[in-house]
């Protein structure tokens, strides 16, 4: 039994690399997801992940599947979208969700077009769903750097970030950290989406960010446990996704997201906080004892 | 302490208050009243510097920005955020702890003391999403208490709060005033204003009246305030440029 779980990782270097890569990704991306969820910005994260695609695609156009070129392209595109969507939200009366939808559908379409112009269908699949099992040294180093930057920044901006989520007006009344925390956080989102992009692909990367937080919310109530549980869930999903895709030979990143989806489904029904069945049980018990 | 000089304020070039001239002195205890949209919240935000004046200015005399404390409308706070009452109150210690330092033992004592003073003893670990509206308002006051501010700005502290809470929190405000704080509060309940607030400022797009409560709250002033407040809302979009 243990052999089934550890064997593939012991035997193959590519599995070890994938394990290391997804571990680093889980540690940095899941906490970001918790804050995105708490700020009701899950959809914004989704939109931003798609917005990175055209940038990465332009990188691809110039240098093929090069980690560096696609990272630089993705970072530029992501930062541009952060700025533009901020301006768009302030300058127009368009409801935020509809302008986000406009943003991400267009970017996705443009990105797919650019890649199809110069690459094959395999390249396209690679960009959309990532190459978890083919992480090279450059990609692993990138994941490590982004993980380190994320943890450091979160440690430094933790208090302002929390305060900005709860009570932005109050934070503004006592300090100037509000704006720094806000934009610093958005930059972290972009960075993590770019690193997620390499391991999980542009369509799936935001899933590893948002879903663990959404699942964890059904089980714990305080912020710190929420963050820790999200990291743990993300990593468990990665390991089970890697193993499943190894034995059944299906693409890895959809498998990882599917296992998180399964965890979400179970939590919606049986979660301690607001699970549907749980609430029903509590009600009937009250009813019986009354 | 504060002086408004020909102050015109508003959002997106739509003025909310025109040509306000008034002085708030040290030790004042002022109720700010007026119809919805009269510019009361905007005035508080202008004092804080969140909203820049369209015309005129706010002069600060002998008070720095860190000595001002602000109590936002409780609807402006995300009450679903997973944080305990104690942690929430701790955010008021920003000027001591800054963004990085951990909360010391004395500071924790101070937080617990503040929660006791507002009648929330035993609720320290309770998540803020499990508090009622009145209880949460008490927690907001506890945070105010530990800020040690000299000028307190409160935006509708008594909206949607039960009688008992209003009475308890009013006592806290009076204590703060007695220990030297200057207080400006947006209040809707006139009975409350007459009972507790020595001074009143009526705003309705312009200054209707400012002075001793008994002299300012007159049928005539109130009628004037509501007729202007609900009157031609659209007409004065460009009024600033007429005067400029």
TrEMBL record, chain A:
GO terms for cellular component: ATP-binding cassette (ABC) transporter complex. It is a multi-pass membrane protein. It is found in: Cell membrane; Membrane. The chain crosses the membrane at residues 18-38, 58-88, 100-119, 139-158, 179-197, 203-220, 227-248, 260-282. It comes from the Bacteria. GO terms for biological process: response to zinc ion; transmembrane transport. Its main location: membrane. InterPro entries: ABC_BtuC-like, ABC_TroCD. Gene3D superfamilies: ABC transporter involved in vitamin B12 uptake, BtuC. Pfam families: ABC-3. Keywords: Membrane, Transmembrane, Transmembrane helix, Transport. Belongs to the ABC-3 integral membrane protein family. This is Zinc/manganese transport system permease protein. It comes from Reinekea marinisedimentorum. The lineage of its organism: Bacteria, Pseudomonadati, Pseudomonadota, Gammaproteobacteria, Oceanospirillales.
TrEMBL record, chain B:
The keyword Nucleotide-binding applies. Residues 2-230 form the ABC transporter domain. Keywords: ATP-binding, Nucleotide-binding, Transport. SMART domains: AAA. InterPro entries: AAA+_ATPase (IPR003593), ABC_transporter-like_ATP-bd (IPR003439), Metal_Ion_Import_ABC (IPR050153), P-loop_NTPase (IPR027417). The keyword Magnesium does not apply. SUPFAM superfamilies: P-loop containing nucleoside triphosphate hydrolases. One of its GO terms (molecular function) is ATP binding. Belongs to the ABC transporter superfamily. This is Zinc/manganese transport system ATP-binding protein.
